[in-house]
Amino acid sequence: MPAKIILNPYSNRWGAGRQAPVVRRLLEEMGYAFEMSETRGPGHAIELAAEAVARGFDPIVAAGGDGTIGEVVNGLLGEGERASVRLGVIPLGSANDYAVQLGIPVDLPAACRLLVEAAHVYTLDAGRVNERAFMNDVTLGFGARVNIEAETIKRLRGSLIYLTGVFKALTRYTLPTVSYAWDNGRLENHPTLMAYAGIGWRTGGVFHLTPDALQDDGLLDFFVGDAMGRLAILRLLPKTFDGSHIHDPRVHFARCTWVRITSADPLPVLADGEIIHRDAHELHLRVLPAALRVIGGPEPGERPGGRSKKPLTPA
To answer: I need a surface site. Which of 155, 208, 229, 304 has the fewest CB within 10 A?
Structure first.
């Protein structure tokens, strides 16, 4: 069977839609057998991916940003633990965190060539937050509020959207009190800035919230940041660019296979760059080891702070 390309025209503020004819032309010139569909709104990529699995397409390719990839992953996995077909990625988003981590170039001809050759396929973890699958990360609290604010910013592009969202969130968000439990740990009624679970190590284009995470170790890298004042947040923020925040005493870090989160306060929740809840009160996160086979580059992307690259598990 040929590949199925699922392209989200809205990614990168309709930038992906403008690139759709280019993607089609490049793949045709490379002699790639494919069928392309464009999404019509939120959740549509899940439907298209599930249909493509049922029809036997392989690989199924997400053309868009991290939110598009996340939806395609939900369609690939359904209610199961492992996808039956390979996942491909054509990065057309604003941050392209997943692609960068996998060494997929953001240069469109190079990304298409890498997809066509499919020389490097890796076995990677995914996860679930309640019933929704994710392939990179889940954020709740302040980090999710940043994304809600970023959605209202129309004139900026790329990582500047998220950085500006930080400053808008500082003026509008009340920090919640939350209880956490994981494999071998617990925090009860904890005033919280944010909590974050990462399979990957990069988010929002510039933030490295779990800088040592491995995408194939069967674990979530999880942290909780203490509630703090605005000035303290601004002082801590630059440390997230190189991952040094994990050594701050106000950050509680763990590696685990599951997390249970409860709060009487409403929690905004972000999964793979998309808001999935604005007022959640109970969340169950768990890792799905070796859930995905993903076409990537010859080696993973550069990690922050001089950290060495970690090889990925070949499929």
So the answer is: 155
